[in-house]
Amino acid sequence: MRLADLTTPSLLLELPALKRNLAAMHHAVARHGVALRPHMKTAKSVEVARLATKGEAGGITVSTLAEARYFAAAGFRDQIYAVGITPQKLDAVAEMNARGAEVKVITDDADAAAAIAAHPGPLTALVEVDVGEGRGGLGPDDEALAAIAARLGQRFAGVLTHAGHSYAGRSIEDMRRMAETERAGIVRAAERIRAAGQTVRIVSMGSSPTALHAGHLEGVTEVRAGVYMFGDLLQCQIGTEARDDIAVSVLASVIGRRPEKNQILLDAGALALSKDRSTEAAPKDYGFGLVVGLDGRPSLGDAIVRRAYQEHGVVESDRPLPFDALPIGAKLRVLPNHSCLTAAAYPAYHVLDGSDEIVAVWDRVNYW
Fold it and tell me: Of 160, 248, 172, nearest to 201 (Cα)?
């Protein structure tokens, strides 16, 4: 099957770009002598996980129980479920672990820690630490850290943090500074718990920007990162990778032409692209995505999806669009603002390996 034969919208994955991105992260982390635990929340694919762990069923990170089951069934036993656990989900995790998985959970709550400690099944937990993102976790100097670790007792394994606020950085120096803040914060949290008498086996940090640009990782045992695998228009602007290394795109068809407005309509709207506007505050606002040619080249100038309805994308460009070359049914690609959310709409990747031939179809796990 060729690219032009696909029904639209479809999700495309460029294998050469994916491999370049994986190699860059492996090199960046390996120089520090720590483990890489790829976060599969973006890819949600066994085939991608095998590439990301260099062909071995190594440690990974997941964001849903559906992911945990899917990857465990494929042999990826060592996992961190990196979303705060609720007591109602403990049975499901314990059941996976009883069948041979090693899914670790996280919490920042004393009552949840007590529920983990009291559960009869096999469970291990990390305490979540906040180093500046302001989402989940306790501050590195919060006295409750040691108390929660103590409440977990023998089920306590370590500490975990995520510098998601690094996406607000705008230079490599910003990323290096945030990486050091992240590293220092999670190491300080581990030291506080050790000082209270607990063993801390895992000191886990990670976001794609800080993982790539950290100056050193002393005191850290592992790094988690995910969006680096695919990249997107925001990651390009914050220095994670080049635009040519964006590995995923959405194949769409022209369904309307408005020469008097220099607009085209695509059959890829909010559901196909997501309504994420992460580039809105970046130096370049790409609306709901950047439209490129079928070959992936930016031959239409800055052709941006400016409006996204449920199934319609309205495209405008900074140069006259070549309407003669864009009949109804013509196919184009849209590069995503945020690949994690764009990919979430699709059940599979149509894999390309440097040509327009579809060389494989890789499934992905969705929902929760």
Answer: 160
- The dihedrals phi and psi of 37, each to the nearest 5 degrees, come to -115, 90
Q: Are 279 and 341 in contact (CB under 8 A)?
A: no
Please count the other Cβ atoms lying within 10 Å of the Cβ belonging to residue 36. Answer: 24
Taking alpha carbons only, the member of 34, 56, 20 closest to residue 216 is 34
Instruction: Answer yes or no: is 68 within a domain.
Output: yes
In-domain check, residue 18: no
**Who contacts 4 (Cβ-Cβ below 8 Å, separation ≥6)?**
294, 331, 356
**What total number of domains does the chain contain?**
2
**Chain segment 304-349, per-residue pLDDT in tens:** 999 999 999 999 999 999 999 999 999 999 999 999 999 999 999 9
Is the pTM here over 0.90, yes or no? Answer: yes
Encode pLDDT of 76-106 as tens digits.
Answer: 999 999 999 999 999 999 999 999 999 999 9
Domain boundary among 201, 230, 259: 230
- The answer to the question of residue 191 being in a domain is yes
Res. 303 pLDDT band, cuts 50 70 90: very high
Q: Which helix (H) or strand (E) segment is 79 a member of?
A: strand 78-84
Domain that holds residue 266: 3-11+247-363
